[in-house]
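Tokens for chain A. Residues wanted.
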């Protein structure tokens, strides 16, 4: 099951509080790139047919049907990527490998790269 670390949940709750999301949930989407890496995107959205709604640590999430198999066992974390720069990382729990990240400013991850 998709999960959030406590640190990621706190960062997301903070981003939600600062946003004008108006009660929308945070959509987490993923796709496999040509090189096998996992591209991750996040943004506020309304529910659609086929979405998997989740409420994890006070964060309302939506995962669309195409992304569900890719994110089934993933952990979303918020870590210090380099000194002074924090971002979200996607950790596929099945493989146990950490993956790439995003900016510290909010909910738009550029990519999660799988293990090579």
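Reply:
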């Amino acid at each position: 099951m998709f999960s959030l670390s406590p640190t990621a949940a706190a960062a997301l709750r903070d981003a939600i509080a600062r946003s004008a999301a108006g009660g929308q949930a945070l959509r987490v989407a993923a796709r496999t790139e040509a090189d096998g890496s996992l591209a991750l995107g996040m943004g506020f959205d309304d529910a659609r047919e086929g979405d998997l709604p989740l409420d994890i640590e006070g964060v309302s999430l939506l995962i669309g049907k195409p992304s569900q198999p890719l994110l089934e066992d993933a952990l979303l974390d918020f870590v210090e990527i380099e000194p002074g720069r924090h971002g979200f990382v996607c950790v596929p729990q099945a493989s146990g490998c950490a993956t790439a990240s995003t900016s510290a400013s909010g909910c738009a991850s550029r990519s999660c790269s799988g293990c090579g």
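Residues 95-116 have pLDDT under 50 and may be disordered. The domain at 3-92 is CATH 2.60.300.12 (Hypothetical Protein Aq_1857; Chain: A;).
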